[in-house]
Write a structure and sequence with these properties.
globular; 26% helix; five-stranded antiparallel sheet; Beta-lactamase
């Protein structure tokens, strides 16, 4: 069989090199019955840096869930760029920080202003994608989940702060996580700083403020990570030799799966691992993790471009529509040829639920940062066919008790026919 990808130049620590990938027989058997493209990628799993985690969920008589994880080629030490996946924990941490703030009148819907105290910082005083033209943590989270907006991530990062983000995630047991950078092309030193911030009441007066923050603890970049055989610099210059991911963000696939599982099933998870947010915050997060761009006009996205399955990779096909009765609570990421989806899938019609997470690399020419990746020919079709394989298996899988999924059923919004604002056709994501 023809190799789809050239060999990488990758430098990793001795412990990473020695790490063994984890594959279990049940998932391997399920995948043997998948489509030809899936089989082709599986056969070249290491070239594609492929990792899959399939989580079966079973309920007892009282509807309490239990989880059984199945792995294919999983290795916590095998690097992949998490890309937009980092927006998920930052959204969780932003709501946790708000929940713990002592200021009365400050919540996720409160108007927020970003000032600038360094030359590279970008102030923000208005958000024209919001109906009221004002930025807020809630609106950033909506944009990060609906279409994976990059500036929304930067603003969540600036609110939470580099040190607080990493300390909090490490304390919860997500030991692989390193939140190192904003999506602004900054140096590692610049990324340690975050903007001064103010919260405003409805009259425009400051009711709470946060000064510029600086992470005094340097992050650990001692393990070099180089991928590819050539690359383009940020300035667009071609260079032979691999691309340096050493100072980029890093999260293992299992840590990301566990973060989402913790939001969806907090009572079934260790107390230490949970996020300190309110019941309303849980509802808000689940709602926007599963909502479609067509189900809101705040922000008002062009639904021809940002269609229902736009960020639902396991169900993304040519119809751009989701199956009847299916909701996917998920976050995706794609950058530098890496593609990731971490999902909790609910089918209300057939009463099934499961989790599926996958990461892969699709860059057959080995040139990093050239925007020429195999997303359309390999990445998106593979993830959809993988999703279909697991979905069909779940439809046939026997359960002792049918799950009561009513806790995850929401009444979603719809477009206001009287809203004459133009739709948003472009976004940095």
């Amino acid at each position: 069989m023809k190799r789809l990808l050239p060999l990488f130049t990758i430098l990793l620590s001795a412990t990473q090199i020695a790490a063994q990938s984890k594959t279990d027989a049940e998932l391997e058997t399920i995948l043997k019955h998948s489509a030809p493209l899936v089989q082709q990628v599986l056969a070249n799993k290491d070239d594609h840096r492929l990792q899959i985690i399939y989580t079966q969920i079973d309920r007892d008589k009282q509807n309490n869930p239990s989880f059984q994880h199945h792995f294919f080629n999983y290795d916590a030490g095998r690097y992949f760029n998490p890309a937009s996946m980092v927006k998920m924990p930052l959204a969780f941490l932003a709501l946790e920080k708000l929940h713990q703030m002592p200021h009365a009148g400050v919540d996720k819907f409160t108007a927020i202003q970003y000032d600038s105290s360094r030359t590279w910082m970008r102030p923000l005083y208005a958000d024209t994608t919001a109906k009221n033209d004002l930025p807020s943590i809630a609106h950033f989270i909506k944009k990060a989940f609906l279409i994976s907006d990059n500036d929304a991530y930067n603003r969540l990062y600036q609110f939470v702060g580099q040190q607080q983000a990493n300390d909090a995630l490490q304390a919860k047991g997500f030991s692989s996580t390193r939140i190192a950078r904003q999506f602004m092309g900054l140096s590692s030193e610049q990324n340690r700083y975050t903007n001064p911030i103010r919260f405003l009441n409805q009259k425009g007066s400051t009711i709470a403020s946060q000064p510029e923050a600086y992470n005094p603890k340097p992050l650990d970049f001692s393990q070099p990570i180089f991928i590819g055989n050539a690359h383009y610099t940020r300035e667009g210059e071609y260079r032979t030799g691999p691309f340096d991911f050493t100072e980029h963000n890093n999260i293992s696939l299992f840590d990301m799966q566990q973060m989402l599982q913790t939001i969806m099933f907090p009572q079934a998870m260790p107390v230490k691992q949970r996020f300190d947010v309110s019941d309303d915050d849980y509802t808000f997060l689940r709602y926007w993790l599963s909502a479609f761009p067509s189900e809101t006009d705040d922000p008002k996205y062009d639904t021809a471009k940002f269609y229902d399955s736009y960020v639902k990779f396991f169900f993304k096909d040519s119809t751009h529509r989701m199956p009847d009765g299916v909701r996917v609570f998920n976050k995706v990421g794609w950058a530098y040829g890496f593609m990731i989806d971490v999902s909790y899938v609910v089918d209300f019609k057939h009463k099934i639920e499961y989790m599926l997470a996958a990461s892969m690399y699709v860059n057959s020419d080995g040139v990093v940062n050239d925007s020429r990746y195999d997303e359309e020919t390999i990445g998106f079709p593979f993830l959809r066919q993988l999703g279909e394989t697991i979905y069909q298996h779940e439809l046939q899988r026997k359960r002792k008790y049918k799950p009561d999924l009513s806790a995850f059923r929401y009444t979603y919004g719809h477009r206001d026919p009287h809203d004459k604002r133009p739709v948003i056709t472009e976004a940095d994501n």
